[in-house]
Design brief:
heterodimer, A: Glutaredoxin, 4 helices, globular, B: Heat Shock Protein 90, six-stranded mixed β-sheet, 26% strand
Chain lengths: 121, 183
């Protein structure tokens, strides 16, 4: 069973590693998921989990994924906002599978997934 | 809402919006009595009596985008529709305590759902806030206290991917295992 002793070992291991992560700078991508009652009820939690898991799998260190409150478009929830290069992209009616595609095509390769953007829904 | 765990997330979001620095979430199940109880306590800004009196009304909300707020009404309904009970206490400037009690075997009781996932999300997405999560099933008790975790971690952030992976397993083995599949 996982115990706090194991956490201490993990801490020591992490401390001994040189930090090779990209320093958060201007190239950092920010991803926000609406997590108010409307978002939660529409399935925002699995979407956020999918984003985090995918970012972890791909070792994306210059991406910050966080949650936010009601974005004001409850009928289009779950909503994912991506802030990249001074631009904001609003993805609507998201699912875990769509979220994975956004990570792969937009966050990693820089091509926004037009069909999920708000203008096309 | 299709899972009680999502109600917990939703209510905890209220605590975060209230500027809480510490949030205590407790899940207690007594299978012999057929009852379970969920409570959330915070040290946020609290509410005055006037707000408290109408907080279970869906047409009361603190948000500004529109005048409907479903979080607390849905939580209340989830408990009362099973023959359980609901209560909320709040003191302006001190914090809020909210609980819901369920009849486990009632046909209208929603499944608990991914409670562990909700705890993981709350803890890792809000590193500036401390959480104490307690699960009690009969004699067994499991606790996750982020103050302990952060003390051990020192300057390593609680939302680092490696720590998140650890917490995911820790929550599953120390909290979720206790009721495992029965709620």
């Amino acid at each position: 069973m996982k115990s706090l002793e194991e956490l201490k070992a993990l801490r020591d291991k992490m401390k001994s590693q040189t930090d090779n992560r990209a320093v958060a700078g201007s190239d950092e991508t920010i991803v926000k998921v609406g997590m108010a009652t409307c978002g939660i009820a529409a399935g925002a939690r699995p979407v956020l989990t999918a984003l985090l898991d995918e970012a972890e799998k791909r070792q994306l260190h210059n991406v910050s994924i966080s949650q936010t409150g009601c974005i004001g478009l409850c009928r289009l929830e779950p909503i994912v906002e991506v802030f990249q290069g001074g631009q904001k992209y609003t993805y609507v009616l998201m699912t875990p599978d769509k979220a994975k595609r956004v990570i792969a095509e937009h966050i990693v390769n820089g091509n926004p997934v037009a069909e999920y953007l708000i203008g096309n829904n | 809402m299709r899972e009680l765990a999502l109600n917990v997330l939703d209510i905890a979001e209220n605590s975060l919006a209230a500027g809480a620095k510490h949030i205590a979430i407790a899940l207690t199940a007594d299978f012999s009595a057929g009852r379970m109880r969920i409570s959330i306590e915070d040290d946020g800004c609290g509410m005055d009596e006037k707000t408290l009196a109408k907080v279970t009304d869906p047409f009361t909300t603190s948000r500004t985008t529109r005048s409907v707020g479903m979080g607390i009404p849905l939580f209340k309904y989830s408990a009362e529709s099973t023959g359980g009970s609901f209560g909320i206490r709040s003191v302006k400037g001190e914090g809020t305590y909210i609980f819901a009690e369920y009849v486990i075997g009632h046909i209208d009781r929603m499944p608990l759902g991914d409670f562990g996932g909700v705890v993981l999300q709350l803890v890792t997405m809000n590193p500036q806030v401390d959480f104490t999560v307690t699960v009690k099933c009969g004699e067994e008790e499991g606790v996750l206290d982020t103050r302990e975790i952060k003390e051990i971690l020192g300057d390593i952030p609680v939302d680092a991917p490696e720590v998140r992976a650890f917490l995911k397993d820790y929550i599953r083995e120390n909290l979720v295992r206790l009721y495992g599949g029965r709620l």
